[in-house]
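Teaching note: in complex prediction, the entire set of molecules is handled at once rather than each chain in isolation. The prompt given to students was simply: 'Predict the structure of this complex.' The entities are:
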Amino acid sequence: MTRKDPSGGLLVSPIKNGTVIDHITAGEALNVLRILGITGSTRECLSIATNVESKRMGKKDIVKIENRELRTEEVDRIALLAPQAKINIIRDYKVVEKKGVEIPEVIRGVVRCPNPGCITNTNEPVASTFEVLDKGLHCLYCDWLIKDDIANHII
Amino acid sequence: MYHIISIRDFERSELDYLLDRAQEFDTGTYRPGMLDDKLVALLFFEPSTRTRMSFATAMARLGGKSISVDSVEASSIVKGETLADTIRVISSYVDAIVLRHPKEGAARLASEFATVPVINAGDGAGQHPSQTLLDLYTIRQSMPVDGIDVGLLGDLRYGRTAHSLALALSLYGVTLHTIAPGGLEMPANIALELRERGMEVVEHENVEEAIRELDVLYVTRIQRERFPDSASYYNVASSYRITTDLLDGVKERLMILHPLPRAGEIDPAVDRTPYARYFEQARNGVPIRMALLHEVMK
Ligand SMILES: Nc1ncnc2c1ncn2[C@@H]1O[C@H](COP(=O)(O)OP(=O)(O)OP(=O)(O)O)[C@@H](O)[C@H]1O
Ligand SMILES: [Mg+2]
Ligand SMILES: [Zn+2]
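The expected output is the structure of the full assembly:
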């Protein structure tokens, strides 16, 4: 089935259909799930492996999500935390599609603006909106700049 | 639809165009009834006399009418309603909305829900583009803006007028001199943005050190609430106060500006020197706002 993994096999049981997010920066698996909006209270069946040996990266994290194929706009958020991540779409136990993640130009409703005075932190019917710049995430409403620790600001 | 939300949205040519238009209004080369069938809502969720009056004056001078909603009325109109809904409703009454709001980004949000143009008249610690335009206009009345030395003095941390003026000046090859009390320095990300825009930013310890180099000294308010106690406030405020003694040996064309109202930042004795230009600056609010109102409703 999926015996190609050079570390000598799957750490978790294979899935029939779903998504494998591989080559996640070590330690970021849980944040990757958060940025996808997947929490303990959502329904997905998940397996998570962290700090797995990887030829390419030293250590990496892997997330497997059963019965859900992630869409491009969902996976691109992952690039904010784990730019090397690879998305594998699994159908009938086989990898049918493999794609990298690309940093999106704009992210909506994923990260909360840290500025308490920002209009997006009120009951107004708008989602937080950041443009992604080299130096960080720039709030398109209040001009706040999130320079690091993006994971801490995930909604 | 043309909204005026943030100075960041403007290219230099657009700023110059608006300044040229303001000059036409200033010198009286316009048709008085230009907006005589138009109605603007001045929607102020925060107190402001000057900005609100100058928009009302500008509208009246163009022959248009305004309905003015002050901060007390505004808060009772909305009673828990979102700004988005308020804007949708008021959009259906008027031809443009001028908005002052305590939250940063409020004007951007309003522009997304409005069916008429929105002019930002200040959103919290955020943007106040008509102020920046009138500042530029006042400078340009005396000298070409290109390549001059501008000093920003005062609260450069929270002072929105200083930030948006600096952003605008970065389009004119200006060298910026910052003079701020400890703790009220310009935020690093703004200084970085200015430098990325190619601006030279020079920090100074005190006014004396910088003032002889300057063509413009832009003084902003140092607010008492930024300090733990009044002793430390008075201490800082007095060491940043502009007095006539400081003006020895300055450039002849130096202009001192202040967005007003001032607290104690400028000694009234300075008012009588040729450098004091802040009242002229305040007066320029009208032609600038005429240009903005006309531009969005023409
Ligand atoms: N049916 C499956 N169930 C669970 N995990 C799977 C399944 N098929 C593949 N995987 C996992 O998906 C990832 C990608 O699989 P693939 O067979 O493409 O490996 P690879 O050749 O090492 O790819 P890469 O170059 O991306 O590392 C691996 O981590 C693999 O263990
Ligand atoms: Mg592999
Ligand atoms: Zn914000």
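Point out the following to students. Chain B has a mean pLDDT of 94. Residues 130-282 of chain B form a domain with the Rossmann fold fold (CATH 3.40.50.1370).
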